[in-house]
Design goal:
heterodimer; A: alpha+beta; 14 strands; elongated; B: alpha/beta; Rossmann fold; 3 domains; eleven-stranded mixed sheet; six-stranded antiparallel barrel
Chain lengths: 388, 556
């Protein structure tokens, strides 16, 4: 016995159906859009997201961007996470069929030392399995069971020969779902959560090593509002979370324009669509349901001319920053800081990954490189699926 | 060993027995001909020679580059440079354990040290070493300089012989390279008591190139002094005594006023020192060589040859002729209609012969009735038949007209051939140098594809290149365009040196085996740089050599 599935069958005392194995990702891209779609956050009404309260429309940043082009760039680190999920098999537990999901998780932080020196600063590359909670025969010691199963899998000859290691077996709820397909989504979601954990781990590492500073910001691909962020009340965790993200900007390539709201809570999707080149919107203060008692400053900037892009939202980036100090929470971000961050983002617009990624207009090249780096570290699908 | 990259093997571009690819940093400087080492299976090391270097980015198209500059804004700047790397194509030349399976993906590639380079290129433990230059590899601080030696048995026999040097005038320094090699040979044979012995015959075909090869280099300016010192140091590094040629004897075409038939300016002085003589051709002794005067004349019916034959064998009235003047009048006799009983050769042919012969003989002063040794006069045949070990004869033909140049060259070859074939009665076999090396520039004049097939000089050349190796007659020849040279002449050369040439030349079939990058390198080679091909080297070598240490004249 050197494959994983027979081991799973014998350890869980369940039956596997030897069904078709396939890569469960529709497309190999980050599900930013789908997550943002369900994102529920509310505009903090009557509060400005920035100190300049006079800004009602949009603001050109090109002059600042040009002035600072020869200075050291603000952003030094670039973080991206990605996962590739697979449906490996179906397993029968109490006459119900659950999918066995597996995934490759890659999270990397790259550092730009000079314009030509782009190196990996930190990499988390994990292989995981996602099983229904009910697959543990022992209800009470399921954690122990899954840990020991992970060890056993790693001792398999086939796994050893491939020089790989599974880091964890994740579990998804085996509660009854309306449609069988949902279990697959649950499995993928746990893998996604694990990826987010890895991202947080890396941010925490960078913070601990004091690598992030006012002159060395981090761009995190996607939103900063994690699903499993510390909830309100967990002050210790919340403080830690805020501290870690002091010098981090979240840059979302894809966002749901429906959720773009202005200070009064009305949709301002049209204004974003009409945003002029190198202009930014005013900063809005949001509060996320996901992250308790934390305010976010959110604004948009257009980095590509509309006439060159496929849709009015292509070329517009959504920028997020966590408000840390009391002053920030009260009066919003310093407008000068917002301008500087925006100018730096504008200056990151070149080169482009045109021809390589359909989202080229919204991509920042260092982030794209980080994403490419992660993907280059993946095992090939055939290689991975044949471990089972 | 400094690691510089890793092997790349992809679906479309796999590594093979013959070649591999590896990536390096885009700022690492490598050159074609540099040697790299790759860790291979069974603790062996595979060596490769760099052939091509390409730079690659993730740019999918030119358009993406345009877009990356804000849709064509030339002043657009960026914080990040596009990710890029260099990938290098290398040719496998050796493996330390003779394992020639393709090198594996991801294997480390590093620079080689001196010992590695020698192993890789087949330069280690060369028997009968003879310096042929040096190779410089890598950039500082990793740069290494390695002296390169031929196995002399593959340059001057008996395993392989003859050298062909090609390259455009001036920039290639063909003469300098030939003289560097010849100096190395003379030095070696002077230094060591070897079983074999060698002598040299150089033909000076242009200006004063070789008319002071036994005199010291004269450095006047600071640059020249530095150059001279560098050359001395390099000669020493290569194990060659940094001195000009020794035992040199110059032969100038005879004329009453010495300087009207040569570009040399120091002839009289050289004659006083006993190292120069003037050569003459005397009818009675040299009439057999007459055919050489007509080597470039198309003679499909062999009438010229017949006439030469009639004269050389002394048929009819030609038996009594003793001087060139008499010969000319006798030939003139034959040109008058009805004056000849010879039915085989028409009057028209005699007329043609007369015209050509008169033209040559009247233009030059080397055809004389007698010579006097006391007056430092000699016949070339005689001089060559008395050539001694380590002698270097320089025969000046630069100021002669083209026909006479060919005549002298052919005559010299013939004399050497006779000497080596034992046609000379009064010399002991052991006294004759076992190898005689002839150096001639502008080989295209005598051995080109356009030379008439029955040209006696071409026949002589073919004889030497095809049979000279076993006789100990070695030809060092140079020309501008190798593609012009007769296939059998160049095909029999064991060693080829390619100097700088032009793009049209490298597109010819002679260069078909040369990889594309080396071809373009051939058009950019610096003075003092050659690409060498020799049977003992595993691949082509890009070598450098020091400037000659003998006196050179700035204005030719």
């Amino acid at each position: 016995m050197d494959k994983i599935l027979p081991l799973l069958e014998s350890e869980t005392e369940k039956t596997c159906y030897k069904s078709l194995r396939y890569c469960a990702d529709e497309e190999l891209r980050l599900p930013t859009l789908s997550y943002d779609e369900t994102q529920a956050f509310t505009v903090v009404k009557d509060k400005h997201g920035e100190t300049d309260t006079t800004l009602k429309t949009t603001k050109p940043i090109s002059t600042i961007a040009k002035t600072i082009i020869n200075d050291e760039p603000l952003f030094r680190y670039f973080l991206d996470g990605s996962r590739r999920t697979y449906k490996i098999d179906d397993i029968e537990i109490n006459r119900r069929i659950y999918p066995i999901m597996a995934g490759q998780i890659g999270v990397a932080c790259c550092e730009r030392k000079t314009a030509s020196q782009f190196k990996c600063a930190e990499l988390e590359n994990n292989l995981v399995l996602a099983l229904p909670t009910a697959s543990s025969p022992d209800f009470k010691n399921s954690e122990q069971f899954f840990n020991s199963l992970t060890n056993k899998i790693n001792q398999l000859k086939r796994v050893e020969n491939a020089s790989v290691q599974f880091s964890k077996i994740l579990t998804y709820s085996s509660a009854v779902q309306e449609d069988n397909n949902k279990y697959e989504q649950l499995g993928i979601a746990t893998i996604q959560d694990e990826m987010v954990e890895c991202e947080k781990k890396i941010v925490s590492y960078l913070h601990k090593k004091s690598l992030l500073s006012q002159s060395g910001y981090l761009i995190k691909d996607g939103s900063l509002q994690y699903t499993n962020s510390p909830k309100s009340g967990d002050y210790k965790e919340l403080t830690k979370y805020r501290n870690h993200y002091r010098c981090v900007i979240g840059v979302s390539k894809l966002f749901n324009p429906e959720l773009c709201k202005d200070k009064s809570g009305k949709s301002n999707a049209d204004k974003i669509a009409q945003l002029l080149l190198y202009h930014r919107t005013p900063v809005f203060m949001y509060q996320s349901e996901r992250v308790g008692n934390t305010n976010f400053a959110i604004w948009y900037v257009r980095i590509r001319d509309r006439k060159h892009t496929e849709s009015p939202f292509a070329g517009v980036l959504k920028l997020e920053k966590i408000l840390i100090t009391d002053d920030e929470n009260e009066n919003g971000l310093d407008s000068a800081e917002v301008d500087l961050i925006t100018a730096n983002i504008i200056n990151e617009r070149n080169p482009v990954c045109y021809g390589k990624d359909s989202r080229w207009a919204n991509h920042l090249y260092p982030v794209y490189l980080t994403e490419s780096f992660i993907k280059s570290k993946y095992l090939s699908d055939i290689h991975f699926l044949n471990l089972f | 060993m400094k690691q510089i990259g890793k092997i790349l093997a992809t679906e479309k571009v796999p590594t093979t027995i013959d070649e591999f690819f590896f990536w390096t940093d885009k700022e690492l400087i490598l050159k074609p001909f540099d040697v790299v080492r790759v860790t291979h299976i069974k603790e062996s090391v595979t060596f490769g020679v760099v052939e091509e270097i390409s730079h690659l980015t993730d740019n999918t198209s030119f358009l993406a580059g345009y877009i990356s500059s804000d849709f064509g804004d030339v002043s657009a700047q960026a914080y990040t440079q596009r990710i890029g790397m260099n990938y290098v194509k290398a040719k496998v030349v050796a493996n330390s354990r003779d394992i020639y399976t393709p090198v594996l993906d991801g294997m480390p590639v590093s620079l080689a040290d001196e010992d590695d380079v020698k192993k890789a290129l087949g330069l280690k433990d060369i028997k009968n070493p003879l310096p042929c230059g040096y190779i410089e590899m890598y950039e500082a601080p990793d740069n290494i300089t390695i002296p390169v030696n031929f196995n002399s048995h593959f340059l001057i026999g008996p395993e392989g012989a003859h050298l062909n040097i090609s390259g455009i005038s001036g920039l290639a320094s063909k003469t300098s390279y030939a003289m560097f090699l010849l100096k190395a040979i003379q030095d070696q044979y002077l230094k060591e008591s070897q079983k074999e012995s060698v002598a040299f015959v150089f033909l000076n075909v242009k200006g004063r190139d070789l008319l002071a090869i036994d005199e010291d280099f004269e450095a006047f300016t600071k640059d020249e002094q530095e150059e001279y010192q560098h050359s001395i140091d390099t000669h020493k590094m290569l194990g060659i005594t940094p001195t000009p040629f020794k035992n040199v004897k110059y032969f100038y075409p005879y004329s009453k006023d010495v300087y009207s038939s040569t570009y040399g300016k120091d002839v009289k002085n050289q004659m006083t020192q006993g190292k120069a003589e003037q050569y003459k051709y005397i009818f009675e002794d040299d009439k057999e060589s007459l055919d050489l005067l007509f080597s470039n004349i198309d003679d499909p019916n062999q009438t010229m040859e017949s006439i030469v034959n009639v004269i050389a064998t002394g048929q009819g009235k030609f038996a009594d002729i003793t001087t060139w003047t008499d010969l000319l009048s006798e030939i003139k006799e034959h040109t008058t209609a009805g004056n000849t009983k010879d039915k085989e050769i028409t009057v028209l042919s005699w007329r043609k012969f007369f015209r050509l012969f008169r033209k040559t003989i009247e233009k030059t002063t080397i055809f004389q009735n007698s010579y006097k040794k006391e007056n430092k006069e000699t016949r070339l045949q005689e001089a060559i038949k008395n050539i001694r070990k380590n002698d270097a004869f320089v025969i000046d033909i630069a100021k002669l007209d083209e026909e006479t140049q060919g005549f002298v060259f052919g005559d010299v070859m013939r004399a050497i051939y006779d000497l080596k074939l034992g046609q000379i009665d009064d010399r002991e076999e052991s006294d004759i140098p076992s190898k005689i090396i002839i150096f001639i520039d502008e080989l295209n004049k005598y051995g080109s594809k356009d030379v008439p097939k029955n040209s006696p000089i071409l026949r002589q050349l073919l004889d030497i290149t095809e049979r000279g190796r076993s006789l100990g007659i070695i030809l060092f020849a140079a020309e501008q365009f190798k593609s012009d040279i007769h296939d059998r002449v160049k095909g029999n050369c064991a060693t080829h040196a390619y100097g700088r040439t032009n793009a049209i030349e490298v597109s010819k079939s002679d260069y078909q085996f040369v990889p594309l990058v080396y071809k373009s390198m051939l058009t950019r080679l610096k003075q003092g740089e050659y690409i060498l091909q020799n049977p003992i080297f595993r691949s082509l070598l890009n070598i450098k050599f020091p400037k000659p240490l003998y006196k050179q004249f700035k204005n030719g």
